[in-house]
Specification:
Oligomer: single chain
Number of strands: 5
Helix content: 40-55%
Radius of gyration: 37 Å
Distance between the termini: 70 Å
CATH architecture of the largest domain: 3-Layer(aba) Sandwich
Strand content: 5-15%
CATH superfamily of the largest domain: SGNH hydrolase
Number of helices: 11
CATH class of the largest domain: Alpha Beta
Length: 296
Amino acid sequence: MPERTCGTFWSRWRLKAAGAAAALIAIAVAVALTEFAQAAPSGSSGKPVAAKAASVPRLTTAPQPGASKGSDQSITVVGVGDSVTSGQACNCATFVAMYASDLAAARGLQTTAVNLGVSGMTSTQLLAKMSTPGPFRDQVAKADILLVTIGANDLISLEGKQPAGCPATCYGPLIDSIGRNTQLIVAAAQAAHPGHPQTILVTDYWNVFQDGDVGSAENGGGFQSWSDRLTRAESNSICTAARAANATCVSLYSPFKGNGSKNPTALLAADGDHPNAAGHQLIATTLLANTPQSPL
């Protein structure tokens, strides 16, 4: 192409001058191409490598949903429920405080514990407090992790019954009601602050009535066997409801009683009904073991 263009131009002049000029141009072009090839790295477009790298922006990644808040922020643990949550008959740190402390140590977090447990509270009463605007609901809304233990007091009316007089058809409706309330309690917690994701852990019970040596001495073996069946049925209802509401069910039955043959006396207060310090620590440990690695 260059030779053809030059030949057309220089045909207006003498042939000798045209040939000399064409030769000079060809030499100049060849020298320029040689220098360009030596300056450019093999396979490059001719742009300096350093300049190309500098033009690539650095990307930063925002924290993803569910990621840990980190040790510079505090996670609020709130416990709601009955006398097990409130720590009745123990005179010790409750499992709510123990859990918050253990979580901080295990995960390198700062935690704050708030205990809203009320002795004697039923699932119906807790649902009402969770659903009504006010200080209680406001506290629940601040929870990063919510611990729920409720339902035993709903069965108080059965405690005076003889086992033979209250089969599954007798206690079934009450247990079904506890399950429905549990699901609504979890939903109420989620609705209290919809923009604030929570980890919700719902426990069942090792026994809804007295247990261990005290329970056997005061109620007899027949009653204990019946209360065990009642407790297992309630546990199934609570856990089914918790899972249906996207909460985590944490069973306390096996930690306290194994397959049902373990004597839980060493974990109970003198009343044979509520956990002692060792029992509260066992609950806290069980909750921690069932807490998602990135709870928030």
